[in-house]
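Intended use. Records like the one below are meant for learning the mapping from a protein sequence to its folded structure. Do not use them to infer anything beyond what is encoded.
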Amino acid sequence: MAGELMDNRGRGEAAWTWPSIHPEGRKFGLIAVAVSLVFLLLLDWEIVGWPLLMLSAGVFAFFRDPERVVPQGDSLIVAPADGLVTLISEVLPPVELQHDDVLSGRGLGTEPVTRVSIFMSVFDVHINRAPMGGTIKRLIYIPGKFLNADLDKASEENERQHILIETGNGSPIGFTQIAGLVARRIVPCVKTGDMVAAGQRVGLIRFGSRVDVYLPKGTESKVLLGQKVIAGETVIAETGKQALLEGVTQ
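Structure written out for the chain above:
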C-alpha cells in the first residue's frame, strides 16, 4: 500500500494489516522476550516470566509504525503526532526559530502565532511526521527537564527538539518534539538539508510526550481542544484560513 494513491471516490485498495515495528523498538522488544523466556524456560518462574512476556507485547505495540494515508494539498497542514489536542493558544514562536538566518533561511518571526499542542500517551503511536512538505532548514536539540508534557511551561523547560521546514513556496513552518515525564529520548530520522514530504516520518519520542506545531501567521486551527488527531492524516490547519470552529462533547 505504501505510495499508492487513494481518493474519496474509491480509487485504490485498502485492507487492514498488522503494523510494522519501528527499528528502535525491535531491540527493546527482543530483549524483553529473551528475559521472559529465561524466567519461563530456564528458571521456571512463571509468576515473573508471564508478566514479562506480556510486557514484551506492550513494548512491540508501543513502537508500532502503521502506514497512513496523507491528504495531498500544498496549503494543508497535517498533524505531526497521534494524540489529544491539549492546548491551542497564541504564543511567540521559540526563540531558536524566530529570526531569519543566512544559512537556514526565514524564521517564524517575532509576532504571536497559533500553537497547537498534541499530547501523546503511552498508548498512542509515537512516530512523528512532517506537517508539510519541504526542506529541513533547522534541527535544534535543547537539553532540559522532564516535566509533565501536558503543562504549558513544558514548551520552554523540557528537553526538546525544534524543527523548521521551508515549504515549497518558501514560507517556513516549525514544530517541536518535547520529552515528557516518562519520555527520555528524542530520536530523529532526518537531518538538516533533507527534503521531506507532508506526512513523512521524521522521528519518534520514547514513552509519552508532546509535539507543538506553530501555524503560519494568519492561519487558525481546524482541530478543536480535546480532539484526537492522527499523525499524517488529520488536517489541523490550512494556510491562510481563519474561522472559529466550535464543538460539543457528548
